[in-house]
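B., you asked whether I could sanity-check this one before it goes into the benchmark set. Here's the sequence:
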Amino acid sequence: MPTLPMNDDVLIAGGGLAGACAAFCLSRSGRSVRLLEATGEPGAGASGAAAGSVNPLMGRRARPTWRLADALDALRWITREAGAEATFDETGVLRPARSREQAGVFREAAGEHPDRARWLAPGAAAERFSAVETPHGALWIEGGGAADVPALIDALLEAARRHGATVETGARVTGWQERGGGVVARVERAEGRADLPAGRLLLCVGLGHAALGALAPLDLRAVKGQTLRLRRPPALEGEWLPVLSGNGYVVPQPDGTLRAGSTYEHDARHLRPTDEGRQYILGNVSQMLPPLAEAEVLEARAGARVSPPGSPLPALGPLPGGEANAGDERVWVFGALGSRGLLTAPLLARALPSLLDAPARIPEAVRARAA
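And here's what the prediction gave me:
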């Protein structure tokens, strides 16, 4: 079969955090890149609903996230290289212990990771963070903080454009065919359908995976999450607040408001915010910050986190096939970021230019595979 002329080296489907990080890193490496976002605005899915918490020690036992040192370095690197340093506020994370048992676990975590965390006994925690309820003490985590995810995505895509990338909205990839040493993607636009040839197709489609049957072997799972933007109550005016993670999370925003979350809804029937979600979030976060019980809700958002079954880590690599499908070597998947995207997407995207040429080097922990 003759070689097919390629319009782009890499065609990226999806303009969320994974797609934006990939577009920036690939275009920066010299590849010609075209990013297609199905909606009218990049980051309109789960990335747009994210609170932006960057928590290095996650889970009830405060374990380090995957490749933590490299992950934080990659987040700092990508914000710096994209001229987006202002989108990442690295001021730390406070994790109030929810019980005496968890206090013991957090003390152990501080002892195991003295370069990352410090245990604050109840008195010390109350003295330093007087507005926060810390009857059992708290774990103070260095190096974490908060990122403005929509602003980061905008900055990454603008930097990608400066490197020659094309970013197109209102363009949905509905299928593809490997042909002539590359891949031809079927794209639906308002003006009609088009076939776009490229060297590779990178699928960063988030919840859009459900519309692409070829992604079914990954058995990706979607969990609805709601967040609230709250007006800072008068009782908290003038109080310096860190990112809080315990009974839900609270993330101070650049405009002075507070982003609070989140719900974890496995059987949601729609992606609209609900009163039940609002009450659940306020009930949780007010256990850390009591004035939030009556806080004014300025905005409610909802999105769906997508993750592989049984893993908190994303999926990256050539699209695997099911029992009757050998897979597509020219079609890659990069996504399923779950709740740790800010500590995985920049890390994997930074390695993506070399991994595209050497897929055997993809870490096994994140390699896309059929369930």
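One thing to flag: The chain has a mean pLDDT of 92. Otherwise nothing jumped out at me.
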